[in-house]
């Protein structure tokens, strides 16, 4: 296989954020050539994830490094790559993955986790060697996880990319690089939802709808969607939801009680917290069946939470999840095949679209009640 070598620095447009809470500015930045195990990608589409919003807008972020180019969902085309990269050619379509799978470490050979020890989840905003491939006027720019998709070009270690079938619609590929896949995986890999079981999903964004679809495909008999936005009801129904709760419409009852009312007082087998709200964690636990209920926490944004002890003592399980427990090489191709075969309708997620130049509008669109996912056309 021929190796692509590029020694040229590329100047391109990217959305730069200089400090938490400041607006993004589309500016010219410099992208360095890829090193031996890296790939330079020309981005085509990206999307806006709740985690990106937290990094951009929330004070007290434990990884508050700036200036930064955010974005970890997206799809692009390989422009060049280093001499140790295998399995990729120029022009291949790829998506970034926040995780890798070496297939050899203790975690990768275990069925219990998807967190690779050889190529860990990056929280530093830098490449594996502790440096950046992006700069602006000579100043270092930080990445988002292993990549930065809100840019015309990005450099990423090839262990954190996944080659996709070019027949998959590129906007769909973008949302499969995190949000929807995270939810689907949480139902499939983390909870291992059983046929005929009952499920509650707190928050019907892209992640929650992924959970809903996963639970439907696995044969759940009852899937209860919970969201304060009643416009999310139709979206939930499109992905397999059977019942809908708007907590604001029944303020005299707790969410856990409303879920129990729909399950004969028993609670559900599985509850998924997809919002990242401290107040919902205990509600999620209490909404599950005593002795066997599982609560899977997927939503980001919580720094600490006080857990009620007795519901856990009563035999329930609380588990956290990154990327829905999906292993990049083992599991992600299965989701891609389902997407290729049109087994789920990702057009239902893509409610709005902006250009990179107008990326600030994406944050405002997310506040609209009819918005699920904002696609960014690079």
Explain what you see.
With 378 residues, the protein is an alpha/beta fold. It is 22% helix and 24% strand. The protein is built from ten helices and 18 strands. α3 packs parallel to α4 (206-217).
Radius of gyration: 21 Å
What is the helix content? 10-25%
Strand content: 15-25%
Tally of extended strands? 18
The gross shape turns out to be globular
Q: Counting H and I runs of at least 4 residues, what is the number of helices?
A: 10
Protein structure class:
alpha/beta
Mean pLDDT: 94
Identify low-pLDDT runs.
Answer: none
SSE order, one letter for each helix or strand: EEEHEEEEEEEHHEHEHEHEHEHEHEHE
The termini sit apart by 30 Å
Largest beta sheet, briefly?
Answer: 7 strands, mixed
Main attributes of the structure:
378 residues, alpha/beta, 7-stranded mixed beta sheet, 6-stranded parallel beta sheet, 24% strand, metal-binding, ADH-like_C, EC 1.1.1.1
Give a quick precis of the structure.
This protein is an alpha/beta fold and 378 residues long. It has helices at residues 50-57, 170-176, 179-190, 206-217, 232-238, 255-261, 278-286, 309-313, 332-340, 359-365; strands spanning 10-17, 25-31, 38-47, 68-69, 73-81, 93-96, 134-136, 139-141, 153-157, 161-163, 198-202, 222-226, 243-245, 270-273, 294-297, 317-320, 350-355, 373-377. It starts with 9 loop residues before the first strand and ends with a strand.
């Amino acid at each position: 296989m021929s190796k692509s070598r590029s020694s040229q620095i590329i100047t391109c447009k990217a959305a730069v954020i200089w400090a938490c809470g400041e607006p993004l500015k589309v500016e010219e930045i410099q992208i360095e050539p890829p090193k031996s195990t890296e790939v330079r990608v020309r981005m085509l589409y990206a999307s806006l994830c709740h985690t990106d919003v937290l990094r951009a807008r929330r004070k007290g972020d434990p990884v508050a490094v700036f200036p930064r180019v955010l974005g970890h969902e997206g799809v692009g085309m390989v422009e060049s790559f280093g001499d140790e990269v295998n399995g990729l050619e120029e022009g291949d379509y790829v998506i970034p993955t926040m995780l890798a799978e070496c297939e050899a470490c203790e975690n990768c050979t275990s069925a219990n986790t998807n967190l690779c020890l050889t190529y860990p989840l990056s929280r530093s905003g830098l490449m594996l060697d502790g440096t950046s491939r992006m700069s602006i006027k000579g100043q270092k720019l930080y990445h988002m996880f292993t990549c930065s998709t809100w840019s015309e070009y990005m450099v990423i270690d090839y262990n954190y990319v996944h080659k996709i079938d070019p027949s998959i619609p590129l906007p769909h590929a973008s949302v499969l690089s995190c949000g929807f896949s995270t939810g689907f995986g949480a139902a499939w890999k983390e909870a291992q939802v059983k046929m005929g079981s009952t499920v509650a999903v707190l928050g019907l964004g892209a992640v929650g709808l992924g959970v809903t679809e996963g639970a439907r495909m696995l044969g759940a008999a009852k899937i209860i969607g919970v969201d304060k936005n009643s416009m999310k009801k139709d979206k939930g129904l499109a992905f397999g939801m059977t019942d809908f709760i708007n907590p604001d419409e029944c303020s005299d009852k707790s969410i856990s009680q409303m879920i129990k009312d729909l399950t004969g007082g028993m609670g559900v087998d599985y509850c998924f917290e997809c919002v990242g709200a401290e107040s919902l964690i205990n509600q999620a636990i209490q909404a599950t069946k005593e002795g066997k209920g599982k609560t899977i926490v997927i939503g980001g944004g919580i720094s600490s939470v006080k857990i009620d002890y007795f519901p856990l003592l009563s035999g329930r399980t609380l588990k956290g999840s990154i990327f829905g427990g999906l292993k990049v090489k083992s599991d992600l191709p299965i989701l891609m095949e389902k997407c290729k075969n049109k087994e789920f309708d990702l057009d239902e997620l893509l409610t709005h679209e902006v250009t990179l130049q107008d990326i600030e509008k994406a944050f405002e669109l997310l506040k609209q009640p009819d918005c699920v996912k904002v696609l960014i056309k690079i």
